[in-house]
């Protein structure tokens, strides 16, 4: 965790220094270097470049650190690349996991966004009621996202907010930190502690609490699919959806739509139900391995690794009642959203 914060800090400083050097070199004027207001203005004008550069450097550092951590320690696999893939999870997500993964993006995003809204309002009230509490609104990611939406195109916004964080954060928290914590403390404590650490790096209390459930879902999906690609994809889709919604709100002059509007309770209730059902479905349809003699392969601790001996990949069959619950909750959510949108259109006319 200290390494994550340190890399982010060094990366943002390096990216900003590059921007300053370019600005000084192109203008031939270095007087602004002694003016804090001018430096702050330069930062705001190049927020997209600084944020994108910081995220890119973070991903490069993560790729190096994760590669050294998981590929270099000796193992039964001779190739470092094979050891890295096996320890990260080389099994591809199945069709059923992919279908539920894609379908649950919007309800999970909405549920987490509404949790953020509630906690943010409570935090603001707490800051006003108790003098001396730190005011951290300036580092709130929603504010940064809004500023980035004004500075970047939709493609640039998706790359900075969705592609890079999905790769970097999933490799760190699910691939390395989560792997170690689950091995030491078991599935439930390991997933909860990893998700708590994942939430803490988002700094602002409201944002941290709102992404904690997402961290749990990502980790359960990771262990169930035995593929690092599955949580990366879900993380990318959720952040990408937020980027699209934010850009749409900026273009329409409505601000950050998902984080500022309270949704009707039927929509929120069905979103939460769909998210919970998806989480249970992922776990109950997880991948296990069966050895040639018919025995199930159970590692010393729950991990995403494949057995080194010959084994058959088996995807557990979830109860029909659970499959029905997933389908019905997702259908109810999208029908409720459609009805609510229709009602607003009629009232608007």
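^ structure tokens above, recovered residues below v
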């Amino acid at each position: 965790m200290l390494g994550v914060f340190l890399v982010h800090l060094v990366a943002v400083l390096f990216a900003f220094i590059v921007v300053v050097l370019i600005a000084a070199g192109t203008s031939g004027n270095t007087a602004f270097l002694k003016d804090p207001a001018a430096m702050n203005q330069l930062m705001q004008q190049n927020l997209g470049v600084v944020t994108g550069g910081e995220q890119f450097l973070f991903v490069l550092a993560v790729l190096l650190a994760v590669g050294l951590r998981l590929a270099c320690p000796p193992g039964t696999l001779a190739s470092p690349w094979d050891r890295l893939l096996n320890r990260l999870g080389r099994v591809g997500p199945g069709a059923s996991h992919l279908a539920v993964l894609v379908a649950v993006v919007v309800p999970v995003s909405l549920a987490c966004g509404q949790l953020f809204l509630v906690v943010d309002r409570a935090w603001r009230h707490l800051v006003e009621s108790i003098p001396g509490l730190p005011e951290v609104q300036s580092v709130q990611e929603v504010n940064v996202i809004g500023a980035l939406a004004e500075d970047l195109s939709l493609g640039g916004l998706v790359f900075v907010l969705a592609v890079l964080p999905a790769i970097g954060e999933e490799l760190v928290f699910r691939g390395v930190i989560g792997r170690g914590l689950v091995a030491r403390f078991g599935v439930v404590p390991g997933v909860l502690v990893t998700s708590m650490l994942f939430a803490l790096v988002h700094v602002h209390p409201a944002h941290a609490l709102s992404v904690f459930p997402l961290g749990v879902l990502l980790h359960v999906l990771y262990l169930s699919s035995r593929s690092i690609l599955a949580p990366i994809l879900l993380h990318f889709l959720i952040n990408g959806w937020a980027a699209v919604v934010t850009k749409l709100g900026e273009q329409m002059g409505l601000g950050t739509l998902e984080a500022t509007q309270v949704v009707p309770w039927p929509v929120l209730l069905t979103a939460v139900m769909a998210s919970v059902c998806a989480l249970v479905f992922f776990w109950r349809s997880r991948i296990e391995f069966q050895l040639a003699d018919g025995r199930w392969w159970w590692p010393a601790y729950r991990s995403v690794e494949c057995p080194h001996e010959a084994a058959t990949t088996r995807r557990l069959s979830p109860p029909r009642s659970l499959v029905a619950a997933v389908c019905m909750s997702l259908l109810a959510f999208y029908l409720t959203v459609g009805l609510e949108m229709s009602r607003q259109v009629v009232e608007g006319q």
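The two ends are 52 Å apart (CA to CA).
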